[in-house]
Design goal:
The structure is a single chain. The protein is α+β, with helices and mostly antiparallel strands. The protein has a domain of about 150 residues: Beta Barrel (Thrombin, subunit H), CATH 2.40.10.340. The chain has 4 helices and 12 strands; from the N terminus they run αααββββββββββββα. Strands 1-2-5-4-3-12 form a 6-stranded antiparallel barrel. A 6-stranded antiparallel sheet has the order 8-7-6-9-10-11, with no helix packed on it. The longest helix is centred in the N-terminal third of the chain and has 58 residues.
Length: about 300
């Protein structure tokens, strides 16, 4: 017995197919309209946007609110992680502070036991950084102190933490400081605790390189770098920074001084040692007495004649 088909089966499927086909044609036409690049198509697109977007703005509100909520949650997550990192850093800084206090007390006790007197010649003049006179190939700053304040070429300049550079040009009221990051800067340094000597060479980057190290394997990241005092370029044991490895595995120094934010600099007065030109009128010690009986007369005369 044949089953009679209902009107839904007869008309439903063709109608659905027709709707799907029309929808596909409309979508393809919309894509083509959006891809056409001419003035008429642009006017049509602008008219569609003006007609459709305000009417569906209420439907986009939940999506916009959800996007803002996700962005705020991500921001809170980043703030929470930064807070945890700052707490860990604060804990480490407290440990370093305790170690520094102990070392300071120990240093004071050792200085007292050894009756050490610090050099009175190492004084300083503080100047204000007027301007950064550097360029892509030169790194220097100007100070508001000069020859009238007793500034001389070659003196070391420091900020509150470490060495910045040296005086390389003095006027009556201003002086130019050549920074350690300048390409012409070369200073002798010592790497602690190994005690190896090296040359700190500026290359116009924020981290100068360590060159001419006898045993580079003995230098580790985190080692302190101080001035060596060789050739009387700088006083010895001025803090420069710490060693680290760059991406090319080259030894560089992360400066203790922040050369990007210099406001005040201290210029160290260093007096050159007076050269020793003579013997200083040394007094020869008296001759030792002769042991035994005196020589017979005439022996001295014979000895003088033989020497002649």
């Amino acid at each position: 017995m044949a089953r009679t088909r209902s009107s839904h089966e007869i008309y439903g499927k063709p109608v659905r197919r027709l709707i799907v086909a029309l929808l596909c044609v409309a979508l393809v036409g919309l894509v083509l309209l959006w891809r056409i690049d001419n003035a008429r198509a642009e006017r049509i697109r602008a008219a569609l946007v003006d007609r459709v977007v305000p009417n569906v703005e209420w439907a986009l509100a939940p999506l916009t609110w959800t996007g803002h909520l996700i962005a705020d949650f991500q921001g809170y997550a980043r703030v929470y992680e930064q807070n945890r990192e700052l707490r860990r850093e604060l804990q480490r800084m407290k440990a370093w502070q305790e170690a520094a206090i102990q070392l300071e007390q120990e240093n004071a006790r050792l200085l007292d036991l050894n009756n050490v007197r610090l050099s009175p010649d190492l004084t300083f003049v503080t100047g204000v950084v007027l301007t950064d006179s550097g360029s892509p190939f030169r790194r220097s700053v100007l100070l508001n102190v000069g020859a009238q304040d007793g500034i001389r070429d070659g003196w070391a300049a420091m900020d509150g933490l470490g060495l910045v550079g040296r005086i390389a040009g003095v006027g009556d009221r201003t002086a130019r400081v050549l920074l350690l990051t300048d390409g012409n800067s070369r200073i002798p340094v010592t790497v602690k605790p190994s005690g190896l000597r090296a040359i700190l060479s500026g290359d116009t980057t924020a981290a100068p390189t360590l060159d001419f190290i006898e045993v580079p394997e003995d230098v580790k990241p985190g080692d302190r770098v101080v001035t060596s005092g060789d050739a009387r370029v700088f006083p010895a044991d001025l803090l420069v920074g710490e060693v680290f490895l760059d991406r090319s595995r080259r030894l560089r120094v992360r400066l203790a001084a922040d050369t990007q934010r210099l406001e005040y600099l201290r210029v160290l007065r260093t007096r050159a040692a007076s050269p020793i030109a003579g013997t200083g009128a040394l007094i020869e010690p008296p001759a030792a007495p002769i042991q035994g009986p005196p020589p017979p007369p005439g022996t001295a005369a014979l000895a003088e004649g033989g020497a002649l």
